[in-house]
Write a structure and sequence with these properties.
1 helix, binds deoxyuridine-5'-triphosphate, binds magnesium ion, EC 3.6.1.23, dUTP diphosphatase activity, mainly beta, 3-stranded antiparallel β-sheet, 149 residues, hydrolase, dUTPase-like
Length: 149
């Protein structure tokens, strides 16, 4: 399926690249940091990084904000709320909640690629409250239940 998502650059961010797919079949659009000044994250610290963009997508989509594995592997920088959820009706600036799980301070520069945005189709679901649920073999077993004697 192909969808059109409208993207608005927020004022003062004309220099920040719009999100980009870095290869032909990349699933995510890389997001660029748009903080005016570099942000240094000490180990264990978290911060909300602006991206300088807002979007409007079709009602059946959501966008997920996911970490970049390179930043995670090399520096311990990841998205705290991974995957972040961008609702179809959200018109505010997309922001990325980064946390430093590494052992050294890490500085995020303006226009650095900090995360990726993956679009997904969200099925329309209606919750129906009932008194009883149908039986299954698994039943209520979970949390490591399978394979036990
Ligand atoms: O990583 C994120 C996560 C969320 N958002 C924005 C878009 C999303 O539509 C809105 C709300 O996100 P979420 O539902 O995760 O947060 P909440 O704590 O439930 O806040 P709300 O009560 O506003 O829904 O915040 C971001 O910009 N980046
Ligand atoms: Mg919410």
């Amino acid at each position: 399926m192909s969808y059109e998502v409208r993207l608005k650059r927020l004022p003062g961010n004309e220099d920040v690249p719009i999100p980009q797919k870095m290869s032909d079949l990349a699933s995510g659009f890389d997001l660029y940091a748009a903080a005016a000044e570099p942000i240094t994250l000490q180990p264990g610290e978290r911060t909300l990084v602006p991206t300088g963009i807002a979007i409007a997508m079709p009602a059946e989509l959501e966008a997920q904000i996911r970490p970049r594995s390179g930043l995670a592997l090399k520096h311990g920088i990841t998205c705290l709320n991974s995957p972040g959820t961008i609702d179809a009706d959200y018109r505010g600036e997309i922001k990325v909640l980064l946390v430093n799980l590494g052992q050294s301070a890490f500085t995020i520069e303006r226009k650095e690629r900090i995360a990726q945005m993956v679009f997904q189709v969200v099925p329309s679901v209606r919750l129906e409250v009932v008194a009883e649920l149908d039986d299954t073999v698994r039943g209520a077993g979970g949390f490591g239940h399978t394979g036990k004697q």
